[in-house]
Protein backbone atom coordinates (compact mmCIF):
# COMPACT_ATOMS: atom_id res chain seq x y z
CA UNK A 1 0.00 0.00 0.00
CA UNK A 2 2.90 2.34 0.87
CA UNK A 3 4.59 1.51 -2.40
CA UNK A 4 1.40 2.27 -4.33
CA UNK A 5 0.97 5.60 -2.48
CA UNK A 6 4.61 6.53 -3.07
CA UNK A 7 4.18 5.74 -6.76
CA UNK A 8 1.41 8.34 -7.14
CA UNK A 9 2.11 11.85 -8.35
CA UNK A 10 1.62 14.64 -5.73
CA UNK A 11 -1.42 15.89 -7.67
CA UNK A 12 -3.02 12.40 -7.55
CA UNK A 13 -2.32 12.15 -3.81
CA UNK A 14 -4.05 15.51 -3.23
CA UNK A 15 -7.07 14.39 -5.24
CA UNK A 16 -7.33 11.13 -3.28
CA UNK A 17 -6.99 12.93 0.08
CA UNK A 18 -9.67 15.48 -0.88
CA UNK A 19 -11.91 12.64 -2.13
CA UNK A 20 -11.45 10.74 1.16
CA UNK A 21 -12.28 13.88 3.16
CA UNK A 22 -15.37 14.53 1.01
CA UNK A 23 -16.44 10.90 1.37
CA UNK A 24 -15.95 11.12 5.15
CA UNK A 25 -18.09 14.28 5.31
CA UNK A 26 -20.83 12.70 3.20
CA UNK A 27 -20.85 9.55 5.35
CA UNK A 28 -20.97 11.68 8.52
CA UNK A 29 -23.92 13.62 7.08
CA UNK A 30 -25.84 10.51 6.02
CA UNK A 31 -25.02 8.35 9.04
CA UNK A 32 -25.16 10.95 11.83
CA UNK A 33 -26.58 14.35 10.97
CA UNK A 34 -29.57 13.32 8.81
CA UNK A 35 -30.97 10.79 11.34
CA UNK A 36 -30.63 13.45 14.05
CA UNK A 37 -32.63 15.92 11.94
CA UNK A 38 -35.33 13.33 11.22
CA UNK A 39 -35.56 12.37 14.90
CA UNK A 40 -35.84 16.03 15.85
CA UNK A 41 -38.67 16.51 13.36
CA UNK A 42 -40.50 13.43 14.66
CA UNK A 43 -40.11 14.62 18.25
CA UNK A 44 -41.49 18.05 17.35
CA UNK A 45 -44.58 16.49 15.76
CA UNK A 46 -45.01 14.22 18.82
CA UNK A 47 -44.78 17.22 21.15
CA UNK A 48 -47.39 19.10 19.11
CA UNK A 49 -49.75 16.11 19.09
CA UNK A 50 -49.29 15.41 22.80
CA UNK A 51 -49.76 19.09 23.66
CA UNK A 52 -53.05 19.12 21.77
CA UNK A 53 -54.15 15.96 23.62
CA UNK A 54 -53.20 17.52 26.97
CA UNK A 55 -55.25 20.63 26.18
CA UNK A 56 -58.22 18.45 25.24
CA UNK A 57 -57.86 16.39 28.43
CA UNK A 58 -57.80 19.54 30.54
CA UNK A 59 -60.96 20.72 28.80
CA UNK A 60 -62.90 17.51 29.49
CA UNK A 61 -61.46 16.78 32.95
CA UNK A 62 -64.14 18.82 34.72
CA UNK A 63 -66.88 17.06 32.78
CA UNK A 64 -65.45 13.64 33.62
CA UNK A 65 -65.21 14.53 37.32
CA UNK A 66 -68.79 15.85 37.30
CA UNK A 67 -70.09 12.66 35.66
CA UNK A 68 -68.18 10.49 38.12
CA UNK A 69 -69.74 12.38 41.05
CA UNK A 70 -73.20 11.97 39.52
CA UNK A 71 -72.72 8.23 39.06
CA UNK A 72 -71.55 7.84 42.65
CA UNK A 73 -74.57 9.75 43.94
CA UNK A 74 -77.09 7.95 41.70
CA UNK A 75 -79.24 5.62 43.79
CA UNK A 76 -79.26 1.95 43.03
CA UNK A 77 -82.47 0.53 41.71
CA UNK A 78 -84.93 -0.88 44.23
CA UNK A 79 -84.18 -4.47 45.15
CA UNK A 80 -80.40 -3.97 44.98
CA UNK A 81 -79.93 -6.01 48.13
CA UNK A 82 -82.22 -8.84 47.02
CA UNK A 83 -81.71 -11.89 44.91
CA UNK A 84 -80.33 -11.83 41.40
CA UNK A 85 -83.76 -12.72 40.03
CA UNK A 86 -85.34 -9.75 41.80
CA UNK A 87 -82.60 -7.43 40.55
CA UNK A 88 -83.13 -8.62 36.99
CA UNK A 89 -86.92 -8.29 37.11
CA UNK A 90 -86.91 -4.83 38.69
CA UNK A 91 -84.14 -3.42 36.50
CA UNK A 92 -85.62 -4.90 33.29
CA UNK A 93 -88.94 -3.31 34.17
CA UNK A 94 -87.25 0.05 34.88
CA UNK A 95 -85.36 -0.14 31.57
CA UNK A 96 -88.53 -1.01 29.64
CA UNK A 97 -87.23 -4.44 28.68
CA UNK A 98 -89.60 -6.58 30.74
CA UNK A 99 -91.68 -7.52 27.70
CA UNK A 100 -88.57 -8.80 25.90
CA UNK A 101 -87.71 -11.21 28.74
CA UNK A 102 -89.16 -14.54 27.65
CA UNK A 103 -87.39 -16.69 30.23
CA UNK A 104 -85.59 -16.10 33.53
CA UNK A 105 -84.19 -19.19 35.17
CA UNK A 106 -82.00 -19.37 38.30
CA UNK A 107 -78.59 -20.93 37.79
CA UNK A 108 -76.01 -21.14 40.57
CA UNK A 109 -75.39 -17.67 41.99
CA UNK A 110 -77.02 -16.05 38.98
CA UNK A 111 -79.72 -16.39 36.37
CA UNK A 112 -79.97 -17.50 32.77
CA UNK A 113 -82.04 -15.21 30.57
CA UNK A 114 -83.60 -15.48 27.14
CA UNK A 115 -84.73 -12.28 25.46
CA UNK A 116 -86.50 -11.96 22.11
CA UNK A 117 -86.96 -8.92 19.88
CA UNK A 118 -85.02 -6.50 22.06
CA UNK A 119 -83.19 -3.41 20.81
CA UNK A 120 -79.44 -4.00 20.80
CA UNK A 121 -78.63 -0.55 22.21
CA UNK A 122 -81.23 -0.91 24.95
CA UNK A 123 -79.90 -4.36 25.85
CA UNK A 124 -76.29 -3.15 26.07
CA UNK A 125 -77.33 -0.15 28.18
CA UNK A 126 -79.27 -2.38 30.54
CA UNK A 127 -76.38 -4.83 30.90
CA UNK A 128 -73.99 -1.96 31.61
CA UNK A 129 -76.40 -0.68 34.26
CA UNK A 130 -76.55 -4.12 35.89
CA UNK A 131 -72.78 -4.34 35.93
CA UNK A 132 -72.09 -0.83 37.20
CA UNK A 133 -74.83 -0.38 39.77
CA UNK A 134 -76.06 -3.82 40.75
CA UNK A 135 -72.79 -5.74 40.98
CA UNK A 136 -73.75 -8.32 38.35
CA UNK A 137 -71.59 -9.46 35.46
CA UNK A 138 -72.35 -11.13 32.17
CA UNK A 139 -70.47 -14.42 32.10
CA UNK A 140 -72.08 -15.80 28.93
CA UNK A 141 -73.68 -13.92 26.06
CA UNK A 142 -75.01 -15.06 22.71
CA UNK A 143 -76.72 -12.55 20.45
CA UNK A 144 -78.50 -13.23 17.16
CA UNK A 145 -79.70 -10.52 14.82
CA UNK A 146 -83.36 -10.27 13.87
CA UNK A 147 -84.92 -9.17 10.59
CA UNK A 148 -85.86 -5.78 12.02
CA UNK A 149 -82.99 -3.30 12.10
CA UNK A 150 -81.39 -3.01 15.54
CA UNK A 151 -83.43 -5.89 17.00
CA UNK A 152 -81.74 -8.98 18.43
CA UNK A 153 -82.51 -12.06 20.45
CA UNK A 154 -80.14 -12.84 23.31
CA UNK A 155 -79.27 -15.67 25.64
CA UNK A 156 -77.13 -14.75 28.60
CA UNK A 157 -75.98 -15.74 32.04
CA UNK A 158 -75.79 -13.07 34.73
CA UNK A 159 -73.87 -13.74 37.95
CA UNK A 160 -72.81 -11.75 41.00
CA UNK A 161 -69.27 -10.42 40.83
TrEMBL record:
Q: What are the TM regions of this chain, as residue ranges?
A: none
Query: What InterPro entries does UniProt report for this protein, alphabetically?
Result: T2SS_GspM, T2SS_M_periplasmic_sf
| Protein's cellular compartments | Cell inner membrane
Source organism lineage?
A: Bacteria, Pseudomonadati, Pseudomonadota, Gammaproteobacteria, Pseudomonadales
- What GO biological process term is on the record, naming one? protein secretion by the type II secretion system
What Gene Ontology cellular component terms go with this record? Answer: plasma membrane; type II protein secretion system complex
Q: How does it sit in the membrane?
A: Single-pass membrane protein
Q: Give the signal sequence positions.
A: none
Q: What is this protein called?
A: Type II secretion system protein M
Q: Which family does it belong to?
A: Belongs to the GSP M family.
Instruction: List keywords of the entry alphabetically.
Output: Cell inner membrane, Cell membrane, Membrane, Protein transport, Transmembrane, Transmembrane helix, Transport
Main function: Inner membrane component of the type II secretion system required for the energy-dependent secretion of extracellular factors such as proteases and toxins from the periplasm.
Q: What is its main location?
A: membrane
